[in-house]
Design goal:
Helix content: under 10%
Number of helices: 1
Shape: flat
Number of strands: 20
Structural class: mainly beta
Strand content: over 45%
Largest sheet: 7 strands, mixed
Radius of gyration: 25 Å
């Protein structure tokens, strides 16, 4: 064999289509998001955001991955005269406890497990058992006997976690920010292929990279750096209240970058 030709082929995308139902002053991405992805289901996100701000106090919101680690989320103003006064993580609102609390005093339908009975009434209380006020009766229902609950209407609820920021601005106009965080759910894997031509004089070596995004956020168009192995980490907590680890400091030796 006289020569070896090496070729890098990146196959895959960091895209996850997730609905984001919260609406107050959401961020616009000012520049492409930068991702550092380890081959250990772990990654770092660096994103520049832009908000339209009024003079004084502003409440703005940014989307964050479901698997983000709470202790690593940091927002830094890039524009002069702007201060981040408060930062709060808002968890998804779509769960049974939140819905029952929201619908107290409102009409619901409760289907029992035997599928033959449906109780309709105004929800009075949901502390353990459910208490419904019917037309001429008070109905007590045990949770273990419920198959489904139908909530009338369609209120706007957060389906994904978000970051609420209280921003103080000295002037009216656009404000730029840098958002950085660590998250689980980002991973990559490689496969190698050697192709020898018919003359046995040349071999093409190809590497195919598969990117996986289970973080809970869409990173379409991001600039990606891939690193083999895992960073040194300390114990931390994700926004989903799972025991994961955070990495405030790390050393990286990137294999290559994909833009």
């Amino acid at each position: 064999m006289n020569s070896i030709t090496k070729k890098i082929i990146v196959i895959g995308t960091i895209v996850l289509g997730m609905p984001f139902m919260f609406s107050l002053k959401k961020a616009k991405t000012a520049q492409p998001t930068q991702l550092v992805i380890y081959s250990s289901n772990y990654g770092f996100v660096n994103e520049q955001l832009s908000f339209s701000l009024n003079k004084g106090d502003n409440t703005v919101y940014a989307e964050i991955p479901e698997s983000a680690e709470a202790g690593t989320i940091y927002v830094r103003p890039l524009s002069p005269g702007i201060e981040v006064a408060e930062q709060k993580i808002l968890l998804p609102e779509i769960n049974e406890k939140t819905l029952l609390k929201m619908y107290q005093g409102k009409q619901i339908d409760v289907t029992m497990k035997d599928s033959t009975k449906v109780f309709s009434g105004t929800l009075l209380e949901s502390n353990g058992e459910l208490y419904l006020k019917g037309i001429d009766s008070l109905i007590e229902i045990k949770p273990s006997e419920i198959s489904a609950i139908t909530y009338k209407g369609s209120p706007e609820l957060r389906s994904e976690p978000s970051l609420e920021l209280i921003v103080k601005s000295q002037t009216k106009g656009n404000g730029n920010f840098n958002l950085s965080l660590a998250t689980a759910g980002l991973d990559w894997d490689s496969n190698y292929f050697a192709i020898i031509d018919d003359s046995n004089n040349k071999m093409n070596l190809e590497s195919r990279i598969t990117l996986t995004n289970n973080s809970g956020q869409d990173f379409s168009g991001a600039q990606i750096t891939l690193i083999a192995g895992a960073p040194a980490k300390q114990q931390g907590t994700s926004i989903g209240s799972k025991d994961v680890e955070i990495a405030p400091n790390y050393q990286e030796n990137p294999l290559f970058e994909y833009r």
